[in-house]
Amino acid sequence: MDTDRFDTTTLNEAESRFQAALLDSDVPALDAFLHEDVRFTGPDGSTIDKAADLAAHRGRTLVLSEVGEVSREVQVIDGVGVTRATLHLVGTFAGDKIEATMAYTRTWVPSADGWVIAAAHGSPVAP
C-alpha cells in the first residue's frame, strides 16, 4: 500500500466526499467509505454496525436534505486519520423531521482503496 497518499490532504478530501455521500444517500459510496467492522456510537450511547447504517440509508429511514459543515479539523497520527466535523443536519428519520447540529469524530484507517472509517461518534451540540 502506498502510504504517501494517506496524508491530511487526502483525508480532508475523503471527509468531503463522505459528507456528500451522506447528503445523497449514496449507498454504494457509503459502503466503500465504511470499514467492514465499523461501529458508530450515537448520541444516546447506542452502537450500530455497517449493515444497520447502510440499511437506514437504503431503506430511506434516514434522509438528509441538508448537511452543512460548521467546522472541521483533520489529523493524521501514526498513519491513522481523525476528523472532527460539526455539521448542521436537516432531514427526516423514520418519517420524523430532524434538525440538529452534531459534532462527529471519525477514525479513518488506510485501505487498498483509500481512507475508510473504522469508528465514529456523534453528539449534539448547540447551534
UniProtKB/TrEMBL annotation:
Organism lineage: Bacteria, Bacillati, Actinomycetota, Actinomycetes, Micromonosporales
The DUF4440 domain, residue ranges: 13-117
Stored InterPro entries: DUF4440, NTF2-like_dom_sf
Protein name stated in the entry: DUF4440 domain-containing protein
Domain of life where this protein originates: Bacteria
Coiled coil (residue ranges): none
